[in-house]
Structure formats: C-alpha cells, structure tokens
Amino acid sequence: MQIKSIRLENFRNIKSQSAEFCDGINILYGNNAQGKTNLVEAVYYLACGKSFRGARDKELIMFSEKEGSISSCISSQKGENDLQVKISTQNPKEIYINRVKISKMREFMGTFRAVLFTPEHLSLIKGSPFERRSFTDSAICQLKPKFISLLFEYSKILEQRNALLRAYRQNDSQNGDQMIEYWNYMLSKDAALIINQRREYIKRLDSKAKEFYNSFCNGKETLKISYSGIPDEIEGPGKIEKYITQKLEENLQSDIKNGSTSTGPHRDDLTVEIGGKLSKLYSSQGQQRSCILSMKLAEGEISHEESGEYPVFLFDDILSELDLERQDYILHQIHSKQVFITGCIDYLFDSVKGAKKIYVEKGVYEDRDISPRGQ
Fold first, then answer.
1. CATH class assigned to 131-305
2. What is the pLDDT of residue 325?
C-alpha cells in the first residue's frame, strides 16, 4: 500500500500545495514550525479520519479560511483510488472515494492504512490508560472498520447509563429499576465485543512485538504485553458479557454514589512487562523506547498479515529522539516499505540511500537533494 501523491488546500499553514512521493523512504526536512508534521497529519487523516494531534476538523483549516481539503492518489493490491476529504468551519466533513461521496466513516476506513510514530508515543508506557486504549482502538479500526461503530455505540450507551446513575443519586432512587437493568444489558453486550476484539489484537501484538524487542536486547530480556481489566480465564464474548453484567450489579451502589460506571472497556488498560517487571515502574527510558518501537513495528506486521501488504509508516521527528543504534534499527526495519520521516537536521539522513528528499519551508514543499555533512 502506498500514497503516490497528495494535494492540500487551506490545510494548517499550507495554502495550496501538491507533492509526489516515492515508494520507499520519503524525507521531509527543514526548520521547526514550517509544515513537515502538517503533511504527516494529512496522510494520517486519510487512514483514520481524524488528526493525531487531537485537533477538531475546523482547527485544521488555515486561519481566516472557511474550507480546506486533502486529496490523494493511493495504490494497493486492489488498484488505485482517489481519496478526498473536504472540511469546513460550518458543515460536517465530506469524504469521497473515486469522487463518490461516502456517508459512513467505516466505509472509508481500511481503504488506506498507516502506522504513526511520534515523539509523544515515547511516553505511551508511562502515560494514561486512555492513551494505551486509544493506541489499541486506532489499530483495530484500520483493520476492522465496523469496530468504529461499536465504539461509538458503546460510548452512547455509557452516557445513558451514567445519566441514569446521576438521576438516581439526585432522586435517591432504589435498585432493581427496569431502566438500569436495560442499560446494564446493553452496555454488557457491547462491552463484551469490544473487550474480546481488543484482547485478540493484543495477543497478536504481544507475539510480534516480542520478536522485535528480542532483537533490540539480543535475547537478554523478554517483553510481555497483556490486556488487563477482566481475569484471563474469562474468554469469549458470552462469558465476558456475563462477567460485566455481574460487576455492574455488584457495583451499582458505588456507581450511583459516583455518578459514573466503574466497569467496562472504558476502564481497561494494557500491561507491559519487561523482564517480568512492570515497565512503567521499573524499566529504563531506553527499555521503554525499545518496547514502543517494537509495538509500532508489530502493528505494521499485523496489518500486513491482515491485508497482504504493508501500511505506510509515518515517523514524525522521531530519529532525533533515538540513539544511533535505534536509528539504524528503524532504518533497517523499514527497508522496502513506504515511509515518511520528518526531521530538522539534514545530516541525520546522509546514510539513507535512494530516498526522496523534500525541503519544507513556510508550508511550501520543494524537492531537493540533501547536502553532505560539512558542506
């Protein structure tokens, strides 16, 4: 899978720019705040339908403009497709595949796949459970677009149950109400499906990431990634649903007191262990970085297994955050894949052969050779 070209209109600091890419390594370099990450953000948007920076659509539009767009040509084993996203300050976004308007995001997801690695991901292990859940959910959504609808539906059910809990607290209502039983049933059903798919994905991620991490440490340490939230022995949607239902009933009084639901996939987490010890507490920064690199490369391998082709890899300003050993490892592992790498210091890329180099300044993209170090 590759992205052959892109055109951006009124996107971030980019007024109107087009760029073509090679099927190998594409290097975007230049000073900070010039627009390198903006292009990576646009490519990622085509894969996930949202900004990885957490920006709302209208915040992606150039200041003082009302509309913006991302247009691209991608190729895969299924052929070429033209993708376009139109965003507006006043109207919902519009998505097109080969000029045909798409009404649902799940119909768009999976058409183009990308694995993103940014400096912020280096805090994934020490960060919040929400970050780790988001990492997992984003990866699954690219593989199984219907998972988007499931997450959305669960979120709405959770809102309804929480609203009912707060109403109970204010009105001092009693247990056993048919409404709470209904929302317990609805929440448990979707929760079981989400948890089951997350666990299956994490099992695959653990297996693949182990191999990459093993090469980082020459087999001296072991990596283990597991899904935490419900006991391991409870497997399959049916058993998970029964477990969630039981916990919702047991915790009803405390949930009413707090006005929120204490059980479900919105509370779950990933557990990462290195050498049998909890990584976020006992691992060094170098160990954690090797772990996250392994997880990201494993994400790409799973995507390859699912589709028969590799996703596009996006490495935003990441080489400057890594030591030389990890830089070399990254460049070795992404060989023969389409990759986008951004950076400020051009000599970091002197050893990259056959790459396409694009100089970025003030939202303008210019093909340019990188001068050797010292010249």
1. mainly alpha
2. 79
